[in-house]
């Protein structure tokens, strides 16, 4: 392309400091260096993790930054050493790398990778090195992706090539939320046919977890949320029951135990709230229940009493749904095109980059 090897000036939403609105700025995006890919972002989702960094985590070294990590686009140019991609390829940038060479990538036991932004700076949520500048200042690339920009530069180990027929304004959601929830049920919990499940939190991740439970053959899927407006949407993805903790004067774990003869077989926590994590664990049947922590937080410790585990429960975590990132995203795009997973049904609003702060307000007030 004509822009290859040149600095691109484009529009991006910059988070100059924590707990403040994003600012639409013209930024400079440097050409890709060795093993890097420059991508024209066509569509991006807004994920709660973006809000977490802006309003909750607020790490002093994590700003200024361009947020966004749930995008899809088209390769504009590639740096030296890149052989897997070429200009024109449809791709999804990934916040989780898959180098295929490290001990984690070679192991079937994990989807983690020893390379990428998270190795040394997971608390800052961005590498110190960046291809973005604005007004003479270095701007960090959030989670190594920064999809709230018209162009971004990503290491090739964190890019998935996808089917050229895939609609980018839909499959962008497979870059985080849908894979995270769906995979937590299918890959991490390993939900079995005929089982009972509870999903705590009905945002996109929770709804995807519901979809995963259904795909795995669960017979009873209890959706738990304090917003009753979420239930109709949850039914679309396979929920059979809905429980609002506010409707009860007893712990939610006790409510679910009474509904399921002692507790559910599987519970998935999709809120990032440590109190809910404990409730989800204690909602499992004590003999063999499996509870999966899916929601992200670094702010508080999580706790329970040892007896909750001693009797046979398993408490585990799930990162990006257990999917090996490059492989898993490509497979999920194919599954969507084959109508095996839902994606369109997750979309509630279509907005422009200029409306990013309006989108953030919608999410903060559970209208998204």
TrEMBL record:
Essential cofactor(s): Zn(2+)
GO MF annotations, alphabetized: alcohol dehydrogenase (NAD+) activity; S-(hydroxymethyl)glutathione dehydrogenase [NAD(P)+] activity; zinc ion binding
Entry GO terms, CC: cytosol
Record's keyword terms, sorted: Metal-binding, NAD, Oxidoreductase, Zinc
Enoyl reductase (ER) domain location: 17-368
GO BP term, example: formaldehyde catabolic process
InterPro entries, alphabetized: ADH-like_C, ADH-like_N, ADH_Zn_CS, ER, GroES-like_sf, NAD(P)-bd_dom_sf
Entry-linked Gene3D superfamilies: Medium-chain alcohol dehydrogenases, catalytic domain, NAD(P)-binding Rossmann-like Domain
Family, as annotated: Belongs to the zinc-containing alcohol dehydrogenase family.
Record protein name field: Enoyl reductase (ER) domain-containing protein
Protein source organism: Monopterus albus (Swamp eel)
């Amino acid at each position: 392309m004509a822009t290859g090897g040149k600095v691109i000036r484009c529009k991006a939403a910059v988070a100059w400091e924590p707990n403040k609105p994003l600012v639409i700025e013209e930024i400079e995006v440097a050409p890709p260096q060795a093993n890097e890919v420059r991508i024209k972002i066509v569509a991006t989702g807004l994920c709660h993790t973006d809000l977490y960094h802006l309003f909750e985590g607020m790490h002093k070294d994590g700003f200024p930054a361009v947020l966004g990590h749930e995008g899809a686009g088209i390769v504009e140019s590639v740096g030296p050493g890149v052989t897997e991609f070429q200009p024109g390829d449809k791709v999804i940038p990934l916040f989780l790398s898959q180098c295929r060479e490290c001990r984690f990538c070679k192991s079937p036991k994990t989807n983690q990778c020893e390379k990428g932004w998270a190795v040394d700076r997971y608390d800052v949520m961005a590498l110190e090195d960046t291809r973005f500048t604005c007004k003479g200042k270095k701007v960090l690339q959030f989670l190594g992706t920064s999809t709230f920009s018209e162009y971004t530069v990503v290491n090739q180990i964190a890019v998935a090539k996808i089917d050229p027929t895939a609609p980018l304004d839909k499959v962008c959601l497979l870059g985080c939320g849908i894979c995270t929830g769906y995979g937590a049920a299918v890959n991490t919990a390993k939900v079995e046919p005929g089982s009972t499940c509870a999903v705590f939190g009905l945002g996109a991740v929770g709804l995807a977890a519901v979809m995963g439970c259904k795909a795995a053959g669960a017979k009873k899927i209890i959706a738990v949320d304090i917003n009753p407006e979420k239930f109709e949407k949850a039914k679309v993805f396979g929920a059979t029951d809905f429980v609002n903790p506010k409707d009860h004067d007893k712990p939610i774990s006790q409510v679910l135990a009474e509904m399921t003869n002692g507790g559910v077989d599987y519970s998935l926590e999709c809120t990032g709230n440590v109190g809910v994590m404990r409730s989800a664990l204690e909602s499992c049947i004590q003999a063999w229940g499996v509870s999966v922590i899916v929601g992200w937080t670094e702010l508080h410790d999580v706790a329970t009493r040892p007896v909750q585990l001693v009797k046979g429960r398993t408490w585990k975590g799930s990162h990006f749904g257990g999917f090996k990132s490059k492989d898993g995203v490509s497979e999920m795009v194919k599954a969507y095109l084959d109508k095996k997973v839902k994606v369109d049904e997750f979309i509630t609003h279509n907005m422009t980059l200029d409306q990013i702060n309006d989108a953030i307000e919608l999410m903060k007030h559970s209208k998204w």
